[in-house]
Design a protein that fits this description.
Blueprint (H helix, E strand, L loop, with lengths): L7 E3 L2 E5 L1 H15 L3 H28 L3 E6 L5 E5 L6 H29 L7 H19 L8 H14 L4 H21 L3 H20 L5 E2 L5 H5 L3 E2 L11 H13 L3 H12 L6 H17 L3 H8 L7 H10 L5 H10 L4 H12 L3 H9 L6 H14 L3 H10 L1
Parallel strand pairs: 2-3
Antiparallel strand pairs: 1-2, 3-4, 5-6
Helix pairs in contact: 1-2, 2-3, 2-4, 3-4, 3-5, 6-7, 9-10, 9-11, 9-15, 11-12, 13-14, 13-15, 14-15, 14-16, 16-18, 17-18
Length: 403
């Protein structure tokens, strides 16, 4: 399902306001409006700014770890969706989950508390209401949001803790803990007469009961109205094995794969993860150096690729052959030989894709098929497979016709 367009962009993050957000905000504001409609307007303004700040905390954390994010103001607050997050580790995800409450407490909540400690405005005044509601939203509810109740941030932290400890989502256990904690929260809210809190935690209890039921079928679910239009996809209730932290070698492999699809921004993301690592083996470092050259070639900058080649300690034969062809210093047979010799090296696939995008694929295939070796046809078939995976279908059909 195609995502709807955002209503505004804040710090580079797309933000969309869903109807459900305004309904829940108005639900609280109506009670305040019984005393003064200006109070209701003030509440809506403070709640909107506070929730947006909370979600920006999550989004900024996603960006810090090399992912992308967009925000949907929906439900009983908001949702921040991370994209291109395959490299995010469970520990980083915990930081992302904690970032929302942390930033709203630091920016709005604690400063409001500090002002109240040195200045006591008249009860019921606009200043009194502003400070009181800022503290209530950005401290009290920010802390409540960290309770182990899924899908609040505390419940998401709980989910990641189980992943770290067992390597599994353990969503069944997360739902059960959420239901138990939610029941306690309902009793507390009942005791203090917090009707909205009762409604909120009952809603979360129902969600988690629903989750326990749906998890048996692994069917996609809609978290609440507005999710599909904001995120473009439905989520899955899963309890499967979670992939372990991506290794530096895997980041390198993912980078080469991204270059095949011309996703150079993904290459930068993976390289950022490698650079943040404490130790990098010599083998990985050599591949990273070569990646910088292939990246420039993919972006159509051969001059910069030539400069980057000077920093490569041990370039693959395929890369050297491609650079020689770029400079007009080598015939196609040099690239064909390198692609055969380095069939197990990621540069071999890059060489094939480069040849296809630069009009050399027919010559390369002909050169391979003319060779009197038992594996020549096999390499030609591999070229066809690589081109198909890269989405170069016209070139693939050309190679297929030659074989």
């Amino acid at each position: 399902m195609k995502s709807q367009s955002p209503h505004l962009t804040v710090f580079g993050f797309e933000v969309r306001f869903e109807l459900f957000f305004w309904l829940t905000t108005l639900f609280i504001a109506i009670r305040l409006g019984e005393q003064h409609w200006g109070y209701a307007a003030l509440w809506i303004a403070l709640a909107t700014v506070s929730v947006l700040l909370h979600e920006l905390g999550h989004a900024i954390a996603y960006r810090h770890y090399g992912a992308k994010a967009r925000i949907a103001m929906t439900g009983f607050g908001g949702l921040t969706y991370g994209t291109e997050t395959d490299h995010i580790t469970p520990k980083q995800q915990i930081v992302i989950s904690l970032a929302g409450s942390t930033i709203e407490m630091l920016v709005l909540g604690f400063p409001a508390m500090l002002i109240r400690s040195v200045w006591d405005p008249a009860y019921g005044s606009w200043a009194y209401l502003t400070l009181t509601w800022l503290i209530w939203i950005n401290v009290t509810w920010a802390l409540v949001n960290l309770a182990p109740v899924w899908p609040m941030d505390g419940g998401k932290v709980l989910e990641q803790v189980f992943i770290i400890r067992s390597g599994h989502n353990r969503m069944r256990l997360v739902h059960k803990i959420s239901i138990a904690t939610g029941a306690v929260a309902v009793l507390v809210c009942w005791n203090y007469g917090l009707r909205f809190g009762i409604f909120l935690f009952l809603f979360f209890i129902v969600m988690n009961l629903f989750g326990l039921q749906v998890i048996k079928t692994k069917k996609p679910y809609q978290l609440w109205p507005g999710l599909d239009s904001a995120n473009g996809t439905k989520r899955m209730w899963e309890d499967d094995l979670v992939p372990q932290t991506v290794s530096k070698q895997q980041h390198v492999q993912n980078s080469f794969a991204a270059l095949v699809d011309e996703r150079t921004h993904d290459v930068d993301r993976h390289l950022a993860q490698i650079s943040n690592a404490k130790r990098t083996s010599k083998k990985v470092q050599v591949l990273v150096e070569e990646l910088s050259v292939w990246r420039e070639l993919t972006d159509g900058r051969p001059d910069l690729a030539e400069q980057a080649l000077g920093s490569v300690s041990t370039a693959s034969a395929t890369l050297q052959a491609v650079m020689a062809l770029e400079a007009g210093e080598l015939a196609i047979d040099g690239l064909a030989q390198a692609i055969m010799d380095e069939a197990n090296h990621p540069a071999s696939e890059q060489g094939i894709v480069w040849a296809a995008r630069n009009g050399y694929i027919a010559q390369l295939t002909t050169n391979l098929l003319d060779r009197d070796t038992p594996h020549a046809l096999g390499h030609a078939v591999r070229i066809e497979s690589v081109l198909d995976a890269a989405g170069l279908h016209d070139e693939r059909r050309l190679v297929a016709s030659m074989i």
